[in-house]
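Need tokens for this chain, all 407 residues.
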Amino acid sequence: MTELVHSAGLFAKSERIDSWRVRAVKPVSYEVRVCDDAFDLQSTALLDVGGRSADGRLRRFLVIDQNVDELHGERIRKYFDHHGVDYHAHLVRVDETVKDFDTATGIAQAIDAFGIDRRREPIIVIGGGVLMDIVGLVANLYRRGTPVLRVPTTLIGLVDAGVGVKTGVNFNGHKNRLGTYFETSLTLLDRSFLSTVERRHISNGLAEILKMALIKDVRLFDLLEEHGSRLLDIRFQGDTAAEQRVAAEVVQRAVHGMLEELQPNLWETELERVVDYGHTFSPTIEMHALPALLHGEAVCVDMALTTVLAWRRDLVDEEQRDRILEVMRILELPRWHDSLEPGLLAAALEDTVRHRDGKQRLPLPVGIGDATFVNDVTAEELAVAVADLRRLSSPDAVAGLRPVAAA
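Here are the structure tokens for all 407 residues:
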């Protein structure tokens, strides 16, 4: 009889040893750290991860959004020069229209030309959420996993794209159709970059913060309701100590709330995710409207629609509905877009059902600061909600629109 040797996690299913089951666990650990100035010459946070090459050089490959480079490139290069880093800065003019595999392969080719040591020379990406998604995918694919550090430079990058483990590019007309899960070693959250971000892009990031407020944090909603307009004006910088405290608390609550939801479900084994609020219809809306709508703007349109759905189901009362829609206006976010056509939304819901393993698993707000999941939204219900939202979003919309039975 064949003698079987059993090792931890490896099981032979018969004495003939013609079937094996392999079990292994990979620990996941990454850090998201608030950093007032990631490129302060006295800071080594960006260089403490990784090491030196075999010949003793400190080498790093940088991927930088070209717009960011035009605004901050001098201080970024001064930082790496000051620390004696042998680096190459690969610039990418990036937006949602070039979030594709061609852009990803271009970055991979540049990494290959630089010739990094993948264990000791992490890639450093400096840019917004789109660029971080692309570079994360490249890092995951390059030599089957190369460490990457992130410095988000947009608000949506700070509170959303820069804190999770998703990577991806758009493909075949669908948002993030190709992607992976890949943790970064370190993300540094530096609000100073927001000082040069266009007002519309600050508003865009506020949509993802509003999402967290609506599904789990009434205190965050209150902060946005009271201070949202001012946060837009000051770009989360703050002219006074009080403004600085509010800006810091809003970012901190948004990031903490997001990580609190992500940590126990990083690989999305559980498909009922409250952080999917605003992301049921928005992927289709965003791609259909491209480039007219930014990501956060499409998410907000989705949230406006689903707020109306929740109101019709008595999950949100009229006062709460109007407060939510008013905060969207305060944050200068769209509540309506002409792509809100019942047929497109029905198709978007069908695509979501395929993505969520055969069920809608559609998050709806319950009041302000809580959420529930439903699986029975109909095309007829969507059509009525669209008509309601159109009226509520019109310049002469009046409060007091009453729910009526869906056709």
